[in-house]
Fold this sequence. Notes:
Distance between the termini: 82 Å
Structural class: alpha+beta
Order of helices and strands: HEEEHEE
Helix content: 25-40%
Oligomer: single chain
Number of helices: 2
Shape: elongated
Low-confidence stretches: none
Mean pLDDT: 89
Radius of gyration: 22 Å
Largest sheet: 5 strands, antiparallel
Amino acid sequence: MMEYFFMGGFEIMFLMVFVLIFGMILVVIVRGIGEWGKNNRSPRLDVSATVVSKRTHIMRNQNHTSSSSYYVTFQVESGDRMELRLGGREYGLLAEGDKGKLHFQGTRYLGFDRNW
């Protein structure tokens, strides 16, 4: 009868893993909502900037699929640099050394108008 009141080692480990995974998912969701809200409260800025570098991050899954994230580092007139995540189309249109007007809101990329 007492064995019904105590969980075995497997059940405890299963519960711990479940709580850990659920907690990690919850943290990611809360951080995403926080960043979204912070971006919405940030002013939309238009600044002169130069594209100083580009990078791609590729994530591969166990079922042989992948997804890519694209990042561009901009340097503004003050010398500060910021890395923003872009969509693949926008990423492909930019080249290192491009100069122009960067449009962004917080960490959200809104566009880049190249100087001709």
